[in-house]
Write a structure and sequence with these properties.
single chain, alpha+beta, Ribosomal Protein L22, Chain A, two-stranded antiparallel sheet
């Protein structure tokens, strides 16, 4: 899965990996490969992007990190493409937040309302 980040630090074009996923950047975009354990400093913003079109194996792996309510929500999408994009987006969100918090993505709990 390609996950790239941007912060107020200079961009890097070298590849790397976090959580066993392949990361990459493009020369035309000012995004860098994120560290395995990112930290957020005062007055700093990190912007993340993720390619939502991923192979089945990565999608299945990310699906395992979703909570039951997220799996149910994914199941309600009518079109496969929308369902798959939701799974990738939520799984990536969990992976990113987990790396900041030093938690497994499946350990995160969200509350709404």
């Amino acid at each position: 899965m390609r996950i790239n980040s941007s912060s107020d630090t200079p961009a890097s074009t070298d590849g790397g990996s976090a959580s066993g996923q392949t990361l990459s950047t493009t020369d035309s975009q000012p995004f860098s490969t994120p560290p395995e354990r990112p930290t957020l400093k005062d007055n700093e913003v990190h912007v993340w992007r993720c390619d939502l079109d991923q192979p089945t194996g990565i999608r299945q792996s990310l699906m395992c990190s979703l909570a039951e309510d997220e799996r149910a929500r994914a199941g309600r999408f009518h079109f496969d493409k929308d369902r798959n994009h939701f799974i990738i987006a939520r799984g990536a969100l969990r992976s990113i937040l987990g790396s900041y918090l030093n938690l497994a993505p499946s350990e995160l709990r969200f509350s709404y309302g």
